[in-house]
Design brief:
single chain; 362 residues; mainly alpha; 2 domains; four-stranded mixed sheet; two-stranded antiparallel sheet; 14 helices; 6 strands; disordered C terminus; DUF6601; membrane; Subtilisin-like serine protease protein
Length: 362
Amino acid sequence: MNTFPLPFPRDVQLNSTLDGINKDEDWKELRLPGQPNIRLGQHERLWHHLERELYSADLEKLAPHLWMMSTQSSANISPLHRQKVKNRRIVITEDPRLHLVWVDDKIFIKPLPPYLLSHAFWAEILQPCSGPTTTTTSSSNASPNSTTAEYRTAIALAARGFLRTYTHLIQHESDFRIALDEQLLPCPPPSTSTPSSSDIPMTWTTFADLTATILSTTPDASVSGRYASYGELRLSRLNFYAKLFLRRFYYQRRFPQYGTYFAQFFAPILFVFGTLSVVLGAMQVMTATEALLSPTQVWPGLWMVCRWFSVLTLVLVVGVCVVLGVLLGYRFVSEWCYAIRDRRGKRRRKVGWVGKEAGAMV
């Protein structure tokens, strides 16, 4: 089976802990970089750990339907400085299901593990499994019950996609400094009087060299379905469509307590009650003026003012409700039209690219 090229060569790696080690003799007791409780010789435990850290079964299952929920572009990832401009707070998560998922004023980002920065780790463990498949999602839907080859291929493709996201998150030196401040990048090795061979300094220059190589060697076809065409995901939409595609009430619980859960309904309920109160008050005024202030009474002007003010109040309330409904419908329809056009455009470009490739082969 042909495999995709390594994400980066040895000369730009940022972790050389595994360099120069005999795989057959020395790896049995060697620890996974960044995870001292995982040993490379414990193959089953190692792969289960990689699955837990890098692979999201839920998002791979949703991958064919994510076009309904997000922009269809793997580059749809704002750099870290743009996250600050958008007033989003960076929340660290170790769950791959939440990587690049945002809600309200926060975005969840999974830190970059040190072992993914090791050339030897990719060459000896992940690379033999990262071969191309007939479709990206076919292997990405694999699970621990699948064959060993499919299982490990799915994890390797997810690892490539996860690593590529950092080429979009960190594009400027300011992004690099934010990543260091937010502890998204691996901690540098402890300083010693005699630096070891694995002490590769992580600077903006060395990291930029790494990401430039990753971006050029990791096309969409070489990553899992979740990362092939999608970047940031909105949690509210994931929770909405989880009922349809995952057969679950939500994708990720947002409110751990009943109080905060029911508090989200207070604003719309108050809006409905306030609207109904205004309508009922206007109708009551109209009824009262008809009964008490007829045109033959002493104050016909007051009767006219009360009557027409009540009518205008009803018209205003109805107008506000109609405008809000039209705006909601416009946003909903425009987003669906954009998603459908984008999906059709991607299909046409893909068909055209395949046709050109076939013509070149002939």
